[in-house]
Amino acid sequence: MYSFAQNKTITVLDEPFYGYYLANANLKVTHPGSKEILKALPRSKKQVLAQISAASTTNQCVFIKGMAHHYLSKEPTHILPWNNVILIRHPEKLLASFSKVIKNPTLDDIGIKKAAELFTYLKSQGKTPLVIDSDQLLKNPEEYLQKICKTLGISFTKQMLSWQKGGIQEDGVWAKYWYGNVHKSTGFAIQKTNSHMVPDSLQSVLDQALIHYTILKNHILKND
Fold first, then answer.
1. What is the pLDDT of residues 87-126, one digit of tens each?
2. Number of domains in the chain
3. Would you say residue 224 lies in a domain?
4. 121 within domain boundaries
5. Which of 105, 160, 189, 205 has its CA 20 to 30 A from that of 8?
6. In the predicted model, what is the mean pLDDT of residues 204-216?
7. Is residue 198 part of a domain?
């Protein structure tokens, strides 16, 4: 998201479906700042789509950063006209990061199951999404972003490789809870989290997550 926000031809929306998700999902964990998020964002899908439609009139391209599990429908037809990109991380890294904010996440909370379901749904509709991987990106961010942009039919600019510390104006109100590392960054960097940081209590979640990760990993865009 920070990268694409540096491209002046692109409007960035940070998780516009977050309020809708909090208002309509059957949650087993409490999300930090949930009251603030519900106050700041629309709670109905119709309202969110209207917000996205309004944004699309201001720029040539709209980048919507969303979490897979924010799409509650099994067949979210509203995403079919979009160019969909699924960004994945190995579940060990994903859980290590996620559990720093929410201590006992479930499989549904981390989104990898929903990401695999969205991939399967979109493929069945002839709209196979682009699957990108954080490890592939970090091999060579410039080359990978160029490949992503070419695939999506948008222009790459070198400004997409860096940003200023402290956040961007597009940040959602939840940024103070989740974006600590990126607020300290000025570009792409390898994270220090690793598999040894996954709590033992989350081993069963990891085992389940790996099943869904396997569905996606064979479709990852390579950074050769």
1. 999 999 888 888 888 888 888 888 899 999 999 999 999 9
2. 1
3. no
4. yes
5. 189
6. 94
7. yes
